[in-house]
From TrEMBL:
Protein name: Pentatricopeptide repeat-containing protein
Keyword annotations of the record: Repeat
Organism: Dipteronia sinensis
PANTHER family: PENTATRICOPEPTIDE REPEAT-CONTAINING PROTEIN 3, MITOCHONDRIAL
Gene3D superfamilies, per database record: Tetratricopeptide repeat domain
Pfam families membership: PPR (PF01535), PPR_2 (PF13041)
Family: Belongs to the PPR family. P subfamily.
Claim: Repeat is one of the keywords in the record: yes
PPR repeat ranges per the UniProt record: 15-49, 50-84, 85-119, 120-154
Amino acid sequence: MNLYREMISKGIRPDVVNYNTLLIGFFNMGRVGDARKLFDEMQSIDLASNSYIFASFIDGLCKNDCVLDALEFFHTLEISGCELNIKIVSCLIDGLYKSGRIEMTWELFHKLTEKCLVPNVVTYNIMVNGLCKEGKLEKANGLLLDMEEKGCIPDVVTFGKLM
């Protein structure tokens, strides 16, 4: 944060990459309040309308036990007509699953096609991992078949979860 203040004091305007790095850093240190302030500042100067920033914000909230805030933010993006991508949705799916909100996770996963989004290997790995942790190996194998049918190639992580 000191480097950020020094940049500002010297008239150097941080770019999206600088802001995103700071945002992730705040979340990694558990400084959710500072991350929110920084995000608000980014919005005020129109630097927060980037899918990488949105994904980082949702991921950071989820990793700091603010999953419902992340979900609310996601719904705000939907309502505002923001173009969502699979990275943003996958971050939320991961957060929902890890917080034990299994039903909400599956609802969001099934809504992907409504949003014209195709799950990628990361999204499928999150779902397969969740199913395996629940002991639902048959369903996980079924998801693997679905994944392959839809042209998404499983990776070493996918198979590692199923072993």
